[in-house]
């Protein structure tokens, strides 16, 4: 197995007495969709927050292509190639859809001191933004205010903003939540197209989508990763069935 | 629409330039005060409307600019304009760099309190020490002069020249902030104002952006304070007081946040209202209670104009559209698009 693009080693995160993430390790490889599933409160979002640098881990390491980036703050990790989406749409509602993506793309070439330049003239960010909108199917809504988009399109926009930053690793926190079947199909097809170039971490509650599209699945329960394997292995794992999938007899 | 938004500032600029020709000295002085406060409000607009940083300590930088002008001017001759102006602007910027670096570690209401605390610190330095004459203030006896190798392009001692100099500073401030708003830096500030979490996730280290905006805003406030010191040649600690910070914040809110024109309109409205209610000619003895009608009219304006003075035309248009007779509705079946046509590069800037 080649070296992981992004790797977590023994990640622990405590909030006071609560252990939200307990000794979780996982590898993200280019060309694979790695899904993390688990009940609400299992620590999935906390894990994404630690990987993206929004939260500090209490213990453990995060490695980007073998380099220890545990101490990097979030913006530096983002510039290093970690793109993320949030469980709740996190966009710029009062800007146009296009400007949302252009601003995300501008992060790659910030030109902090170029005060005499027109931001709209930056060919790099304009190109990346148009590209991202094409890929996510939002090109027709480019001039709309992002806050006026229907919910599903906001989710798509967030992925578009991720892509506009040209990440190598995508950390997606429930990208399909609240999407209609057509939009879901579109995003899943996009993920399949993106995985050739990217390592993708997918936190998702839609089990059909997860088992149909993930190459590797990690199951989290109460902060711990209790199983990791292919969809077939996970489906057959009695521990997982017991803890999460609920296939066994209901004993409550 | 696009063209009128450019024509209006040009027309205002020309009208202001021609104003002293009317020969009404009192009103020319009032116009100078108004323009200085417009620069001051514009400098805060960069923080509040640009970066979403609500500061209640902005008067500190105004006052430092004014005190720098007064303290660094010799008593018996005129100082050099370039270095005195530079000292005022850099003095304000330096205090902002130090206090901003600390204040920007906090957010929201805590940021308001910390900026207030730092400005009160500066206030008491000037109020309670002999540095600038204590609570009595300090005089500036000679307006600075610009001299290029013996040649003097203009003489600020002439009221007309000083007036045009203030107007030029206002035009510069407006032009500079308009340029900044369109730049990648300005776009990033807008992003930080709207959603800082997303900006960090996209790869922006937001702290340097906010600090740079804070320092630039303070430098421009220092410019306004410098001009104020030249106006009457008299500087007191009250220029740094929190009432002054509140007043300029009110100008920004009243005028309309996020638009340059809003800051200028807000400054104009507050200065003129203050002038109106203080007028003995109109209100007689009641004029000494001018705070009351001023306060009431501010409450009324804020309540009636949620988008500020600058948002008034849009508010009128919306009302007229809502009040339009429904008789012609069946003809035009599709309702007008709810979203205004947006320039692709982002928010409409004045």
Summarize the structure.
The complex is a heterodimer of chains A (252) and B (350). Chain A is of the alpha/beta class. Helices cover 35% and strands 24% of the residues of chain A.
If you had to describe this structure to a student in words, what would you say it looks like?
- The complex is a heterodimer of chains A (252) and B (350).
- Chain A is built from 9 helices and 10 strands.
- Chain A is of the alpha/beta class and 252 residues long.
- In chain A, a hairpin with a 2-residue loop joins strand 4 (59-64) and strand 5 (67-68).
- The relative contact order of chain A is 0.18.
- Chain B is built from 14 helices and 2 strands; from the N terminus they run αααααβααααβααααα.
- Chain B has helices spanning 2-18, 25-51, 59-72, 81-103, 108-128, 159-182, 184-194, 196-202, 206-232, 242-255, 260-277, 280-283, 291-304, 312-323; strands spanning 138-139, 234-235.
- The chains are: A alpha/beta (252), B mainly alpha (350).
- Chains A and B meet through helix 2 and helix 3 of A and helix 6, helix 7, helix 8 and helix 9 of B.
Write the layout of secondary structure elements.
The complex is a heterodimer of chains A (252) and B (350).
Chain A: E1 6-15, E2 18-28, E3 33-38, H1 44-52, E4 59-64, E5 67-68, H2 74-79, E6 82-85, H3 97-106, H4 123-136, H5 151-164, E7 169-173, H6 181-194, E8 199-203, H7 207-213, E9 216-221, E10 224-229, H8 231-236, H9 238-245
Parallel strand pairs in A: 3-8, 3-9, 6-7, 7-8
Antiparallel strand pairs in A: 1-2, 1-4, 4-5, 9-10
Chain B: H1 2-18, H2 25-51, H3 59-72, H4 81-103, H5 108-128, E1 138-139, H6 159-182, H7 184-194, H8 196-202, H9 206-232, E2 234-235, H10 242-255, H11 260-277, H12 280-283, H13 291-304, H14 312-323
Antiparallel strand pairs in B: 1-2
Helix pairs in contact in B: 2-6, 2-9, 2-10, 2-11, 3-4, 3-5, 3-9, 4-9, 6-7, 6-9, 7-8, 7-9, 10-11, 11-13
- The protein's oligomeric status is heterodimer
Q: Helix amount of chain B, in percent?
A: 55-70%
Mean pLDDT of chain A: 91
Query: Residue share in helices of chain A?
Result: 25-40%
Described by strand count, sense and barrel closure, the largest sheet of chain B is: 2 strands, antiparallel
Order of strands, widest sheet of chain B:
1-2
Report the order of strands and helices of chain A: EEEHEEHEHHHEHEHEEHH
């Amino acid at each position: 197995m080649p070296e992981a693009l992004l790797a977590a080693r023994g990640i622990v995160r405590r909030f006071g007495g609560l252990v939200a993430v307990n000794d979780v390790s996982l590898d993200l490889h280019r060309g694979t969709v790695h899904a993390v599933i688990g009940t609400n409160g299992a620590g999935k979002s906390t894990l994404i927050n630690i990987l993206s640098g929004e939260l500090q881990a209490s213990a453990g390491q995060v490695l980007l292509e073998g380099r220890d980036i545990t101490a990097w703050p979030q913006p530096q990790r983002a510039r290093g190639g970690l793109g993320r989406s949030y469980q709740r749409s996190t966009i710029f509602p009062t800007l146009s859809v296009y400007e949302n993506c252009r601003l995300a793309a501008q992060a790659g070439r910030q030109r902090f001191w170029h005060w005499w330049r027109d931001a709209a003239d930056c060919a790099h960010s304009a190109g990346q933004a148009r590209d991202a909108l094409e890929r996510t199917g939002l090109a027709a809504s480019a001039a709309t205010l992002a806050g006026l988009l229907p919910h599903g399109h906001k989710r798509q926009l967030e992925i578009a903003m991720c892509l506009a930053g040209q990440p190598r690793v995508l950390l997606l926190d429930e990208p399909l939540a609240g999407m209609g079947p057509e939009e879901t199909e579109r995003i899943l097809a996009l993920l399949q197209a993106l995985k050739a170039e990217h390592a993708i971490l997918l936190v998702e509650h839609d089990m059909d989508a997860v088992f149909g599209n993930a190459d590797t699945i990690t199951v989290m329960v109460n902060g711990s990763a209790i199983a990791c394997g292919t969809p077939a292995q996970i489906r057959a794992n009695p521990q997982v069935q017991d803890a999460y999938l609920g296939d066994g007899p209901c004993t409550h | 629409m696009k063209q009128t938004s450019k024509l209006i500032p040009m027309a205002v600029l020309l009208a202001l330039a021609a104003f002293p020709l009317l020969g009404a000295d009192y009103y020319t002085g009032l116009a100078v005060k108004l323009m200085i406060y417009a620069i001051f409000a514009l400098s805060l607009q960069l923080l509040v409307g640009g970066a979403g940083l609500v500061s209640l300590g902005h008067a500190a930088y105004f006052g430092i600019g004014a005190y720098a002008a007064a303290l660094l001017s010799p008593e018996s001759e005129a100082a050099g304009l370039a270095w005195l102006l530079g000292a005022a602007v850099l003095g304000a910027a330096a205090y902002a760099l130090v206090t901003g670096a600390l204040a920007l570690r906090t957010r929201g209401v805590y940021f308001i309190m910390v900026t207030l605390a730092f400005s009160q610190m500066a206030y008491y330095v000037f109020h309670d020490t002999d540095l600038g004459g204590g609570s009595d203030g300090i005089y500036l006896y000679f307006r600075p002069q610009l001299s290029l190798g013996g040649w003097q392009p203009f003489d600020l001692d002439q009221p007309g020249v000083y007036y045009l100099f203030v107007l030029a500073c206002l035009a510069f401030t407006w032009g500079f902030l308009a340029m900044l708003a369109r730049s990648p830096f300005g776009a990033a500030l807008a992003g930080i104002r709207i959603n800082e979490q997303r900006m960090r996730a996209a790869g922006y280290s937001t702290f340097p952006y906010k600090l740079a905006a804070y320092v630039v805003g303070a430098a421009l406030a220092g410019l306004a304070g410098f001009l104020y010191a030249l106006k009457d040649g008299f500087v007191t600690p009250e220029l740094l007081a929190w009432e002054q910070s509140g007043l300029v914040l009110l100008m920004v809110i009243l005028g309309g946040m996020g638009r340059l024109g809003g800051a200028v309109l807000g400054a104009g409205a507050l200065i003129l209202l203050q002038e109106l209610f203080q007028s003995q000619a109109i209100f007689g003895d009641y004029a000494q209670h001018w705070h009351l009608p001023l306060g009431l009219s501010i409450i009324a304006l804020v309540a009636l104009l949620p988008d500020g003075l600058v948002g008034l035309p849009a508010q009128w248009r919306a009302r007229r559209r809502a009040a339009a007779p429904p008789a012609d509705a069946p003809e035009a079946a599709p309702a007008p698009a709810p979203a205004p046509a947006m320039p692709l590069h982002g928010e409409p800037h004045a």
